[in-house]
Request: fold
Amino acid sequence: MRGLAIIAMIFGNSMGNILAEPHPYILRVIISVAAPMFILISGTMVALTFDKKNYGILHYLYRGAFVVGASMFLEIIVWKSWPFTIFEVLYLIGFSIPLTYLSLKIKNELVR
Reply:
């Protein structure tokens, strides 16, 4: 699933240079699924790690901060813009990693 999301994202970002407008509808649908797939995969990975390992909140805060930092680096170096001025899917993933952990923790406490 991760590989499909990567291929769809690469193709989606380069489609404007490869194909002439208007792009076929089916390709636009496939490409529009790439970012939600990345978010779904990151949440699933947090849930799997939460079930198998006993990491605390700091682990997930560090992971989320690393993803946000990588996105900021890309924005500054590659896009040559200020951080948080472009909507990057990495920002959403980075902020959702610790939030997913907290929601899983709350769910486990309520179930007990």
In short: The chain has a mean pLDDT of 88. The CA atoms of residues 63 and 105 lie 17 Å apart. The chain has five helices and no strands. The two ends are 33 Å apart (CA to CA).
